[in-house]
Amino acid sequence: MLKPNLLTANxxxxxxxxxxxxxxxxxxxxxxxxxxxxKLQKIGKHDCIRCASGKVQSSSVDRDAPIGLxxxxxxxxxxxxxxxxxxxxxxxxxxxDLFGKSLLLELLAAEVDPKTGQEKATIxxxxxKGSQDIDDIKYECDFTIPKSFGEIxxxxxxxxxxxxxxxxxITFSSDDTTTLTISCNSWVHSKSDNPEKRIFFxxxxxxxxxxxxxxxxxxxxxxxxxxxxxxxERKDFERIYDYDVYNDLGDPDADEDKARPVLGxxxxxxxxxxxxxxxxxxxxxxxxxxxxxxxxxPRDEAFSEVKSLQFSGKTLxxxxxxxxxxxxxxxxxxxxxxPYFTAIxxxxxEGLTLPKQEGLGLLQSIIPRLVKVISDGxxxxxxxxxxxxxxxxxxxxxxxxxxxxxxLAGVNPYAIQLVTEFPLKSKLDPQVYGPxxxxxxxxxxxxxxxxxxxxxxxxxxxxLFMLDYHDLFLPFVHKVEELEGTTLYGSRTIFxxxxxxxxxxxxxxxxxxxxxxxxxxxxxxxxxxxxxxxxLWKLAKAHVGAHDxxxxxxxxxxxxxxxxxxxxxxxxxxxxxxxxxxxxxxxxHFRYTMEINSLARQFLISAxxxxxxxxxxxxxxxxxxxxxxxxxxxxxxxxxxADLIRRGMAVEDPIAExxxxxxxxxxxxxxxxxxxxSAIKQWIQDYVSHYYLDSSHxxxxxxxxxxxxxxxxxxxxxxxxxxxxxxxxxxxxxxHILTTITWVASAHHAAVNFGQYQYGGYFPNxxxxxxxxxxxxxxxxxxxxxxxxxxxxxxxxCFPSQIQATVVMAVLDVLSSxxxxxxxxxxxxxxxxxxxxxxxAAYERFNGRLKEIEGIIDERNADPKLKNRFGAGTxxxxxxxxxxxxxxxxxxxxxxxxx
Length: 899
Ligand SMILES: [Fe+2]
Prior knowledge:
By secondary structure, this protein is α+β, with helices and mostly antiparallel strands.
């Protein structure tokens, strides 16, 4: 259990020196000037004044004497950066250190010279290498500061080494009393790569208009540097944030079949933007960028080498680099399915022996959960842990009530919706796709619920629900049918809400539209009481399972969290200075997202990548996500309450908790998610109202306005003209926008990410692909006879092949795992938050509330009345529990999308 330490602040934030007025408007919240206290402290031979709360005190010491200060820079030991033992430049850097000219610090005064109106001259000193421990090396230097210098506003750093270095923080002290700590947590490039100095501002946050006079130029210059000029190929050490379209998924130069359309920037394929890397264009397609084994992300967005080796991103890279090729070598026959169900069990019991190859031993230490060495040490074995649902009930995946329950409490709780009209109707063009009415008719439904209520009553009482994968998939059916080893239908699945509050599936409709060669095929399958019908029902559920897996991975997971958040990160870094309170609020929610997305572009969503190899739509997978972005994605609907209302799963009710009444009371994702949503909203409300008292403060904040403008017009530029974008014109709207972004990056992602192995780790429960058609489609005689002979084999042939299943299981295992140093929502606070007592208190409340929520969720999971989360062999719903132990736990909400 994580125990956030909220009391780690060890310093007053500013240093002042005894001149003139010690209180100025920028020293506290801009719109709530509180009396700050400036206390003179005796520091060695000199005097220093530092800011604390209380009131001004005077000192009898010499106010004109210069001040002596010691600065200590904590530099993290890293694998590939400074202080590594790798590479020839190490010796050069040691020599530089020996001469004490390795790290130049320059202090920048917060205020301009009152006489000239110009910035004061910086005060410089070279830091020399001092003490060293297992994690850090300390660089130290002494400053003598004239009395007229005033408050330190920032430190400029020049790294004279030949290697980059990771700066943790810079601490100023005298007589061993820490008086100022500046958090850096950033890579500083070598001067030989880029002569530009790095700037680190103090931990005090300022809205743009409140920026101290001596920092205004630096504030805007820093943003200019991060915006870059949009030219050329980005280099590894750069910190430039810019936009580009998804034009690097294909590889047309390698193979014509690997050409892919550019996603983003067109009416046909709208998409959120990704980070611009500026790589050369391909020869065969001038619109596409060449692929590369290492893709640029701004330096501080890359997985930090200071993270443990078990960091999930590194683990994922290892799995993709080494394990998957091994699986592909071990299982030579790519289309081979599992011959019988017990063969699937062997993956957990005996494992899959991997061919001997270099590096697998190392993998065993990185991913011990997956790769085992058998006892005599001769072979590496890929052995899977049984997922939670199989551990608890081996046969639950076969049952209808579990199929339904997972729509409310599984890994894709974002698709179930209320049925509001009957019969269901397609919105697709009937000229192309046939009559819009569903084949599921009143008689069929009433056959199932007859005697209980009519369809009309069920609609009125909001008892009918559905998974609707009809209109999204139908236009791709013929294209997908032309590909080998897969099939696709449009599907609709109808459920009935029982008096128990659980869902019961009533019917599945599978549709293939008409083509020039074939007429439309459309059939309804229902739970049956004869053997043939019962097996057809199981097969139809497998097809719907594949549709749901594809929709989940491509849309609720990849598109709505990973892809849609990246533009917020780019815009924030281009338009909000590091001193901006909103930058500091959002920053923890953006950690490592750009890097994991870059990894996804290399291996997961690229042409012939994991998604294209293992999910039903194969090479059309990403095009489908573009269609979903076009037709479905709206920023204003990404807020949890709006999403629930849109799907008919809730209605507004001012007297209900959270202002919403749920259509299904026991909807675990919604009930728990709303607790988290409200906690996030309260924290953000406390934070925002500390800085913005009224709408004018929001409207006058030009950095904030530019941030939001770029999100709308550049990052999500294909949606820039939509009328639904909230306006950045009031504290209320700002709070709602920030709550939505934070929710998506933390809880939405956690809800659809960390349960993936629990439910997808046994693939019959969530097949990613349905490889063969329903045996009754077009009445294919051969297939139907085979099906009648051995229906179990038909089901196994429909499921993923051995390679597809094993590769996906290995990836899901890593994606579902928390690293030992995961950063959770409401966990360790950012240092600048701790600095301000009001923000610190609000964050402590947030943390306390999240712990309460953890208890509430535990109580709910123990309540026998809540049958969608409690029951014999039922996996409890823990996705919205904020904290977790490392590993695959099915709980824990990290701050950001980092896996
Ligand atoms: Fe993810």
